[in-house]
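Form P-L/3: holo structure prediction, ligand (2R)-2,3-dihydroxypropanoic acid.
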Amino acid sequence: MSKKHVVTLTRRWPGEVEAHLAELYDVHLNGDDHPLSVAELQGALAESDALCPTVSDRIDAEVLETESCRARILGNFGVGFNHIDLKATRRRELVVTNTPEVLTDCTADLAMALLLAAARRLGEGERCLRAGQWGGWRPTHMLATRVSGKTLGLVGFGRIARAVARRAHHGFGMRILFHDPQSPSPEAMAEVQAEARDSLETLLAEADFVSLHCPGGKQTRHLMNADRLNHMQRGAFLINTARGDVVDEAALVEVLRKGHLAGAGLDVYEQEPRVHPELVHMEQVLLAPHLGSASRETRVAMGMRVLSNLQAFFEGRPPPDRVA
Ligand code: DGY
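OUTPUT (holo model):
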């Protein structure tokens, strides 16, 4: 029997996917699920045929300029790949794959959950109740912001943004605006009666809620800077389930502090797992620990998607989700 390919997972994956992988490959697991150091990532590259990282691993030029690299493929567990330096992977002739589609619905669900919870002050309400401070119903208690019928501005109009738009438009009667440098199909726009805005600033000025759905990376770093945050309507909300560094967190703290924005719902942060200390104390901000794709069903589907990319690669077929 031919020797099995060695596959290293940088973090623990759902048990059934690890078991499935172990039937096919010689799988190296990270027993205690700690974030791997540069040296550990380099060790894994040296001893594996495939390395399977996640968003919590920085696969940068330093890691990839290691002396010995046996790996030929990086099977990323996740759709976003801005934590992988693609110039450096090309120099090493490494194939890179991701896991699109399978996490679209769950991430869109979470964006809506953050939007609803921030607008209706759910975090604050729950904290008040748990602290025993609820004095009973009264007409002026915790008045919040209505969601139904409002305008949602989507920054980016890819798969996840369109799934958010469907929920917001068909579920909550919201008007949908979007800004995306790439024109979507007329069908995608018609499905949610979406209106394009050529400039981001125009979109920001018109929307009651702004939800970010652009990729991370150098080009979108601090896209939402102080200037653009101030372009948002007074009393609007910012929702981020994309990447943390798309928002200048210090500038966001400032617009929230001065009351220009009514609130925010955040799932991602500039320096995960560190969260800007002032955000942590702001009642009007909903903070989730990067949970976009975190349903059992979706995480299993993501793992299975990595597996089908690895299978294709090792059988000499093009991996279905190759990004580089
Ligand atoms: C991704 O897939 O890029 C998410 O951020 C983690 O699910």
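COMMENT: The first strand starts at residue 6 and ends at 9.
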